[in-house]
Amino acid sequence: MNNNKLSFNIVDVTNFEQVDQAVKQITKSSNIDILINNAGITGSTTELWNYDIKEWNKVVEINLMGTFNCCKSVVPCMIKNNYGRIVNIASVSGKDGNANASAYSSVKAGVLGLTKSLGKELAEKNIAVNAVTPAGAKTRILDQMSKEHVKRMLSKVPRGRFLELNELSSLVCWLSSEENSFSTAAVFDISGGRSTY
């Protein structure tokens, strides 16, 4: 494998200027064909009325504003090239809501609304914008939640297990591919049967 083609940038997605600067740097030498918005935190597992306002705002800034900032910066490049695939990683909690996770549930619902709106705005171009709504997967994000909350989440999944990362990545890869030439502004469920709408 030729590693000369690999590069990375560490960017604070809550800072539009940083995001935009990174996009401008990348597009000096190549196109951005695929954008996957996956940055996220859960925030506290507590009742809404006990939620710390600064922490609530941090969840909004990373999960929702981060998705907005990346789309706002990258979409003009995709429009210029008349090609793009955007996949926003939401959550089944954005559809169903999770008790004691009001900030996370709210921002993931916001990501779904953003996906549907942007997908329709770009529908006449060769740019697809879709979201996926995974159930819990064994990643470091579970470390941010109480054990009781994780157990309650898992109890809602009819398949009775956590999502495997290769199952999620297979769906994201298809949504990011040229084969996905028709689906846009859509939400793809991968929740083990927890949510089927």
What does this structure look like?
This protein has helices spanning 16-26, 53-81, 93-96, 102-121, 147-155, 165-175; strands at 34-37, 84-89, 127-134, 186-190. The N and C termini lie far apart (41 Å). By secondary structure, the chain is of the alpha/beta class. It has one domain (31-190): NAD(P)-binding Rossmann-like Domain (Rossmann fold), CATH 3.40.50.720. The chain is built from six helices and four strands, in the order αβαβααβααβ. Strand 1 (34-37), helix 2 and strand 2 form a beta-alpha-beta unit. Helix content is 43%, strand content 12%. The longest helix has 29 residues, at 53-81. It is globular, with a radius of gyration of 17 Å. Helix 1 packs parallel to helix 2 (53-81) and helix 2 (53-81) packs parallel to helix 4. It has a four-stranded parallel sheet, sandwiched between helices.
